[in-house]
UniProtKB/TrEMBL annotation:
One example of a Gene Ontology biological process annotation: proteasome assembly
Name of the protein in question: Proteasome assembly chaperone 3
Residues annotated as transmembrane: none
Organism in which the protein naturally occurs: Ephemerocybe angulata
C-alpha cells in the first residue's frame, strides 16, 4: 500500500510518498521560472503518459541518503517526475509567475528483484507507474 500526502506552502510544495509510514529521504526539486515546461507527454509503452522532466531540474538532497547508487538514481527519477507532474498540473498555483520548489519525501519498500546499476526491475517499473498514476489522479481530483 502506498500513501501520498500533498501539502502546499507559500514558497514550496511538499509531497510525501510512503509505503512504510515514514517520511523517508527528502529531496528538493527546483526549476528556474525561465525554463519552459514540456507540453507534450513522453512516449511510453504503458497505458499512462507522463510529462518529460526538464534537464534543467536541480535536485538538492535535504535529509537522508539512498542506500545504494541504484536507489540514488531511482529517488532522483521519482523526484524529477513527481515535480514535473505537479508543475504541469492545472491545480498548481502559478498565478504569480513563479514556480515553487517541490520537496519530495520518499520511503519505499525495497523491491524483491531490485535492478542492478541504472536498470529498473519489473517490480520497480510497476511501482513507479502506479505511484505516478495515483499522483495524477490526486491532482486531477483537486485533493490536496
Amino acid at each position: 500500500a502506498t500513501q501520498i500526502v500533498l501539502q502546499s506552502f507559500a514558497d514550496r510544495t511538499l509531497i510525501l510518498v510512503t509505503q512504510i509510514g515514514k517520511v523517508g529521504n527528502l529531496i528538493q526539486a527546483s526549476l528556474p521560472s525561465t525554463t519552459p515546461l514540456s507540453t507534450e507527454p513522453s512516449d511510453t509503452a504503458t497505458e499512462i503518459t507522463l510529462p518529460e522532466p526538464s534537464p534543467a531540474i536541480q535536485l538538492t538532497p535535504l535529509l537522508g541518503s539512498a542506500p545504494s547508487d541504484h536507489y540514488q538514481t531511482l529517488y532522483s527519477l521519482y523526484t524529477s517526475q513527481i515535480a514535473t507532474i505537479v508543475w504541469e498540473s492545472p491545480a498548481h498555483d502559478t498565478f504569480d509567475g513563479s514556480r515553487k520548489s517541490i520537496v519530495v519525501g520518499l520511503a519505499l519498500k525495497k523491491a524483491a528483484d531490485a535492478g542492478a546499476g541504472c536498470e529498473l526491475s519489473e517490480d520497480e517499473r510497476a511501482t513507479f507507474q502506479g505511484i505516478m498514476r495515483m499522483l495524477q489522479d490526486m491532482l486531477k481530483g483537486g485533493s490536496s
